[in-house]
Design brief:
transmembrane helix; golgi apparatus; membrane; alpha+beta; 38% helix; 7 helices; Hexosyltransferase; signal-anchor
Length: 179
């Protein structure tokens, strides 16, 4: 209901900030097993403000924003037309086409829509940890750095990472102890 209330036709797009679980191999152990349902707790995860994958909008708002970039990314009516409508020169890593397709719908609304974009935490949106793979681009140093930072940011809290390092050092110093 909160998502519906925050999405307003011709005025506002809603982008929910999910609670994202940290890496389960780091935060859970024999004493603290992984629960069947993810609890909102600072030791289990965090609200990931870098996650732009969950967005709510009206079709009319999408079509208006999409129409503005039709010259960069052609509208495709049928799957078989995708490669016909996309010039091979547009697939370069620094082309506007490539940047729009990499950055997704959220950035399309930011750059090409008069609608406001509301970002807010959504307690009912809880995501289990997933490994994000970074596809590195030669000309996109900022994007590469951002992706690497986000992978590290979603591992665990600083104290949990510190404990992991200390456990590893103890294991190396005394190989008989369990790791």
């Amino acid at each position: 209901n909160r998502v519906r209330m925050n999405t307003v036709l011709d005025f506002q797009v809603f982008s929910a900030i999910p609670f994202t679980e940290y890496h389960p191999d780091i935060i859970y152990n024999e004493n603290r097993p992984q629960p069947p349902e993810l609890d909102i707790n600072k030791n289990y995860g965090h609200y990931d403000s870098t996650n732009f994958k969950h967005i709510s909008f009206y079709t009319a708002d999408y079509l208006k924003a999409r129409k503005k970039i039709e010259d960069v990314i052609p509208l495709v009516k049928y799957d078989k037309d995708i490669w016909k409508l996309t010039p091979k020169s547009q697939l370069a890593e620094d082309s506007p086409y490539y940047l729009y397709t990499r950055n997704g719908i959220y950035n399309m609304f930011v750059k090409n829509s008069k609608a406001h974009i509301l970002r807010a935490v959504e307690p009912s949106l809880r995501l289990r940890h997933s490994l994000e793979t970074c596809v590195y681009c030669r000309n996109q140093v900022e994007f590469n750095d951002y992706c690497t930072r986000m992978q590290a940011f979603n591992l665990a809290t600083r104290s949990q990472l510190g404990r992991l390092i200390l456990d590893y050092q103890a294991h190396v110093a005394y190989p008989r102890s369990e790791f």
